[in-house]
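quick one, 417 residues, struct below
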Amino acid sequence: MSKIYLILYNAVIIFVLPLIVVILFLFSKKYRKELFYKISERFAYYNCSNLDLKKKKTVWIHCASLGEVRAVEPILDNLRENFFIVLTTLTKSGREYAAKLQKVDFLALLPLDIYLITKRAFDIIKPNLFVLVETEFWVSMLYTAARRNIAIITINGRISEKSFDSYKCLRFFWGKFVGLINVIIARSEEDADRFKYLAGEKSVIFVSGNIKYDRNFTSGVKRKKFLLKETDFVFTAGSTRENEEAVIADAYIKIGRKFKIFLAPRHIARIPEVAKLLEDKRLKYSLFSENDFIGNFVLVDIFGKLQNIYSISDVCYVGGSLVDKGGQNPIEPAAYGKPVLFGEYMDNFKTEARSLVKNNGAFIVKNSSDLANKIKKFMTNSSFLKCIGDNAFKTVYDQKGAISFTLAKLKEILDVQ
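---
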């Protein structure tokens, strides 16, 4: 039955893919530049001549994007001495970040999930272990690995509530392929239950906590780099989405424009749109790329700077949460000891958001007035600011340990092969 589903799945992919490419090319500024980026890798034209497969076992780790690559950095550091590490990413940003790390033996984009292409990828890489990070359900990849008796493990596994509703409707299909994963290490009991529902009794499931808590969040960046004084109040809104920037700008205006703000849209392609919004509201701003930090409002138009900005901020808002986009990772600012604000839509990070709110390290905001009131309270009460920041940091620190658990399981699987 799995083979029949695989054929149907591939037929749909082959039929729909050209249409998707045309739509993205014509209407998506975000993905247009990515369509032809290292396109040969999408067809698994890889050169892995540097992998001497006779000397070491090969671990193939697949991450969706930059956030997941960052999360597995400690795993790469730990495994690279004794194993060949192959890393694939779904996105251009993830691949570029991984290239800068120089911590893997071979790096490429994930091939198109078409059986003949995935077969070529496995023929070239010949992994001993195939590791999927979070929610990477690629049907042809899973089928190819399972058919070759390659151990498959999902680490930091998560399935959001919204995604789970979709998977449940097609459980007859997804169960066939999720069940091919030998070991699933979920980041919460809730996620584990969702995986168990899809996989049935076919997969061994553990709960580790979130490996993103275990990252080293020491940035080393000083405020003077951004022409800031230690007494300046700095608010950062990170990874914002459409319709959120207006709320943030209105909150800034309500407080009287009396603090420093860094606004970082999730997608750089939206910078002109956000700039126009600020101009319409008669807000003067400078662009981060111009290194002009004299004014109070800085629009971050460069990718990869948000972590450093979080580290020198007083309070941080995590985007994609005032609008129904699932939210972004609140661990990142919290790990720097910063109070965190976010909206009600945190489905992608529900466990983390819930823990921060429960431990008084974060607050939920609903509109510009609510956001303005929270910021104003932090501005005028330094002891409150420190207390909430300390709570946020402690919440992250107390959850560390998932990396150690995950590494132990990975090595256990590799040793028995």
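The domain at 56-209+401-415 is CATH 3.40.50.11720 (Rossmann fold).
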